[in-house]
Amino acid sequence: MPELPEVETVRRTLMQLVVGKQIDHVTINLPRIIKRPIEPEQFADAIVGQTIQTIERRGKFLKIMMDELMLVSHLRMEGKYGVYDKSDPLEPHTHVIFHFTDGTELRYRDVRQFGTMHLFLPAEESLLPPLNKLGVEPLDEQFTVQVLREKLERRSSKIKPLLLNQEHVVGLGNIYVDEALFKARIHPEREASTLTEAEWSMLFISIKETLQQAVEMGGSSIKSYVNGQGEMGMFQQQLLVYGRKSEPCPTCDHPIEKLKVAGRGTHICTKCQQKL
């Protein structure tokens, strides 16, 4: 699933490609992608004539702001946006097409068909699902080590699933949680309540640094992720533990191990990240 760096990269590329374009009509080939309004025809009719003004991000969601409406889109496992000329051949698994008045198209492709689209009035989106219960943005100024501790330090749950929970900190998924915990030398099965003040500080720094570096490199293309221009991310070349089972730890040379934590495949160095 695309995480914060990948979604942020898609946002930035789409800003260059579709802002200022007016929607002529919409083609919906897979109605279940549309979650709000319930009737896909209402969705399509509502945005005809709307011009895309800007694109924002909230956690792993894209917020496409138009003249009078807000489209909230979640890519889920393998959703992709791309901009094409209307004469370009239609690729398989293209489920929603936004046809612009200039002859170009914003196409949404999704092999797994898990993506979602919700349409709201401006400001309404923050009060209703799927955005209304999201936690703090880890790259915003209001995200501090104090905020991180206030949200998690009294909990007896394992630290990894807590970080994956979007109601606490948004945008973190399996890749970047594994990387941040490794940099902070914290075992993913440690209970949050057992972390020391120094460990909270290291975890905070590791989360910020990992996400910032990933954004700068366009995210990680682990499976099929590409940005809005069809380009792969490059941060996967910098990953320290994720996807590197049996390879030597970059810190101590101990083989990286893969285990399951809360049902998620998890990569760690058991020598650097010791469990108390």
TrEMBL record:
<dbReference type="GO" id="GO:0008534">
    <property type="term" value="F:oxidized purine nucleobase lesion DNA N-glycosylase activity"/>
</dbReference>
<keyword id="KW-0326">Glycosidase</keyword>
<dbReference type="Pfam" id="PF01149">
    <property type="entry name" value="Fapy_DNA_glyco"/>
</dbReference>
<comment type="subunit">
    <text>Monomer.</text>
</comment>
<comment type="function">
    <text>Involved in base excision repair of DNA damaged by oxidation or by mutagenic agents. Acts as DNA glycosylase that recognizes and removes damaged bases. Has a preference for oxidized purines, such as 7,8-dihydro-8-oxoguanine (8-oxoG). Has AP (apurinic/apyrimidinic) lyase activity and introduces nicks in the DNA strand. Cleaves the DNA backbone by beta-delta elimination to generate a single-strand break at the site of the removed base with both 3'- and 5'-phosphates.</text>
</comment>
<protein>
    <recommendedName>
        <fullName>Formamidopyrimidine-DNA glycosylase</fullName>
        <ecNumber>3.2.2.23</ecNumber>
        <ecNumber>4.2.99.18</ecNumber>
    </recommendedName>
</protein>
<keyword id="KW-0378">Hydrolase</keyword>
<dbReference type="InterPro" id="IPR012319">
    <property type="entry name" value="FPG_cat"/>
</dbReference>
<keyword id="KW-0511">Multifunctional enzyme</keyword>
<feature type="domain" description="Formamidopyrimidine-DNA glycosylase catalytic">
    <location>
        <begin position="2"/>
        <end position="115"/>
    </location>
</feature>
<feature type="binding site">
    <location>
        <position position="93"/>
    </location>
    <ligand>
        <name>DNA</name>
    </ligand>
</feature>
<dbReference type="InterPro" id="IPR015886">
    <property type="entry name" value="H2TH_FPG"/>
</dbReference>
<keyword id="KW-0863">Zinc-finger</keyword>
<dbReference type="InterPro" id="IPR010663">
    <property type="entry name" value="Znf_FPG/IleRS"/>
</dbReference>
<comment type="similarity">
    <text>Belongs to the FPG family.</text>
</comment>
<feature type="active site" description="Proton donor; for delta-elimination activity">
    <location>
        <position position="264"/>
    </location>
</feature>
<keyword id="KW-0227">DNA damage</keyword>
<feature type="binding site">
    <location>
        <position position="112"/>
    </location>
    <ligand>
        <name>DNA</name>
    </ligand>
</feature>
<feature type="domain" description="FPG-type">
    <location>
        <begin position="240"/>
        <end position="274"/>
    </location>
</feature>
<dbReference type="InterPro" id="IPR010979">
    <property type="entry name" value="Ribosomal_uS13-like_H2TH"/>
</dbReference>
<dbReference type="InterPro" id="IPR035937">
    <property type="entry name" value="FPG_N"/>
</dbReference>
<dbReference type="InterPro" id="IPR020629">
    <property type="entry name" value="FPG_Glyclase"/>
</dbReference>
<feature type="active site" description="Proton donor; for beta-elimination activity">
    <location>
        <position position="60"/>
    </location>
</feature>
<dbReference type="Pfam" id="PF06831">
    <property type="entry name" value="H2TH"/>
</dbReference>
<feature type="active site" description="Schiff-base intermediate with DNA">
    <location>
        <position position="2"/>
    </location>
</feature>
<dbReference type="InterPro" id="IPR000214">
    <property type="entry name" value="Znf_DNA_glyclase/AP_lyase"/>
</dbReference>
<keyword id="KW-0862">Zinc</keyword>
<feature type="active site" description="Proton donor">
    <location>
        <position position="3"/>
    </location>
</feature>
<dbReference type="Pfam" id="PF06827">
    <property type="entry name" value="zf-FPG_IleRS"/>
</dbReference>
<feature type="binding site">
    <location>
        <position position="155"/>
    </location>
    <ligand>
        <name>DNA</name>
    </ligand>
</feature>
<keyword id="KW-0479">Metal-binding</keyword>
<keyword id="KW-0238">DNA-binding</keyword>
<keyword id="KW-0234">DNA repair</keyword>
<keyword id="KW-0456">Lyase</keyword>
